[in-house]
Amino acid sequence: MAKLVYDETGRLLFTEEMKAEYTLLMPQMLPVHFSMMQRCLELHGYHVDMLTTNHRGIVDTGLKYVHNDTCYPALLVIGQLIDAIQSGKYDPHKVGLLITQTGGGCRASNYIHLLRKALARAGLDFVPVISVNLSGLDKNPGFHLSLSLIRQMIFSMMYGDLIVQIANQCRPYEVEEGATDRLVEQWVNRLVSLFAAGKGLKFSAMVKLFDKIAADFKALPRAGESKIRVGVVGEIYIKYAPLGNNNLEAFLLAEGAEPVVPGLTDFIIFKIYNRDVDVDLYGGLWAKQKIVRLFMRYVEKCQKAMISAIRNAGFRPPEPFSALHSRVKGYLGDGNKMGEGWLLTAEMLELIHSGTTNIVCTQPFGCLPNHIVGKGMIRRLKDDFPNSNIVAIDYDPGATKINQENRIKLMLANAKRNLGHAVTP
Hints:
Blueprint: H1 16-21, E1 23-27, H2 31-43, E2 47-51, H3 56-65, H4 72-86, E3 95-100, H5 111-121, E4 129-132, H6 147-170, H7 179-196, H8 203-218, E5 228-234, H9 236-240, H10 248-254, E6 257-260, H11 264-282, H12 286-312, H13 321-327, H14 341-353, E7 358-364, H15 368-373, H16 375-384, E8 389-395, H17 401-418
Parallel strand pairs: 1-2, 1-3, 3-4, 5-6, 5-7, 7-8
C-alpha cells in the first residue's frame, strides 16, 4: 500500500506510487466532454472512475458533512464523492478525488478546501484530493497536467461542444429513438482512439473531423415540426450537470421542447480573457498579457472552425465569443467577471437574438454572481425584448423537483401563447 506523504503545510499529497495503485473519482458535469476527458486521463496512466450517481442520498451526505449555507454545487460534488467512498464499491484506502479549481473569486475556488474539511469530518482524511487547474495551485508529485494531456483536454472540449450542439438539434426530431445518443457514443469512442494514436490533435485534422462529425449527424433521419426552443443558462455546474439541475434537458425533451445549451468553449475563452483584462484593470506584466492573448486567439480560431462546420452542415450555429462580448456592451462591463460574470447575460442576449426567446436561468440559491448577472438582468432584458420569456429557477437542498418543473411548465405555457410573435429590440 502506498505510503501517505504530506507537504510542509500538512497537505496530503498524491504520489507517484499512488498513481499506480489508486482509482481517481471524478464528478461528472458535462457527460460528453467529461467522458472524453476521463479517457484522456486513462491514456496517461491514471485509473479514473467518473461518477454518474444521481439520488437523494447524495444531497443528504452533502448536508451531513458541509454547512447547509454552502454553495449548492459544492454540497452536491462533495456529497457525491463521499457517498461514492462510503458506498462499498471502492477500497477507501486506494481512492483519490479529482476536483477542478478555477482560482477565481467565486466560492467554487474553495470547493477543494471544503472537501478536505468534509473528509476529515467523515474520518476519511487519508484520502488524497487533487486539484485540476491551470493556476499552479496544489501541486502533487503523482499528478501532472502535461502539455500532451492539456492538449487532449482542450480538443475534447472542442469536439464535445460540436457534438453536443448538433446532437441537441437532432435528438428532439430523431425518427429512431436513441439514434442520436448511439452516434454520440460512437464518435466519443472514435475520437479517444484517435487521441491514443496521436491523431486528431492538430488544427487541420480537427477541422476535417468537425466536418465528418457534422456530416454524420446531418445524415440521421429526422422528422416532425419545429419544437419550442428553450435556452438553458446559469451557474456552470447547475447549467450542465444532470445531478445539479434534476435532469433538466431530459425534462424539456419530455415536455416536447428543444433544449439549447451554450457550449463550454465560451466559458473557457471568458476565463482566458479575464486574465488579459486583469492586466488592463489592475496592472501586470505585458509579457503575460501577450501570452494570454496568443492562447485566446488560438482557442477562438478553433471555435470559429467549429461554428463553420455546424453552419455548413445546415444546423443552427452558436455565435463566436467576440459576438457575445459585443452584445453585452451597454449591459455589463468587463469588470463583472466573478463566477459566470457578464458571459451569462451575453448568453441570454445571444439566445434572444437567435430566436430562442424562452430561457431557463438555473442558479444555486444564494449564488451572488448569478443573482446579479442572471436573475438581476432579467427585468432589463424583458424591457428591451418584451416578448422574451425568461424564468429563474433556484436549486438548493430544500427546493423540490416538482416545484421547479411546475415553474418551467408555466414558462412553456407562456411560450406556446407567444408562439409566432417576433422579438424586437
